[in-house]
Amino acid sequence: MSWAWLALVEEAPASADAAAEACTPEGEAAGVLALWARHAKPVRHARRVDARLLDPDGAPARVSLVLPPLGAPLAFDDLAVQQARRDLLAGPPFDAVSTLLTDDSHFEGSLLVARDGDAARLRDDPFARIFPARILDVAAGALGRAPWPAGPVIERYGSAHPWPADRF
To answer: Is residue 26, in this structure, part of any structural domain at all?
Structure first.
């Protein structure tokens, strides 16, 4: 799996590979959702995200963004993370999902992308049971679609070797 960086920032960074304004469902400005396809971390609070979500031509979307406080990660093996993943995969697919991370073994949030009628289901984001979620409307130009995971995408058979994301 390839990784990109994701961060909610105040202004669109010139260095971002994709960025779009974000606002609350009530229309209040929430910043800019920016994504970078690079190895180096672009801003201090950026987290790694599945690179397939980065799409400068992506349509507008509603997202559930779960971000634990900095310094409060959980191990991917934590039972709450495992159950949230199971619950999410048991339901109908969304346009995209990615856990967020800064290293290979800790859950540092998630991004769930929905469009059209699926947006209402974001209120039931299983990862929001672990840490609070922010529901945001993201303008066009940042987020694409990615195939729904076929199997256990967060269990590891070695810290640097996740199970293949496209098959089980």
So the answer is: yes
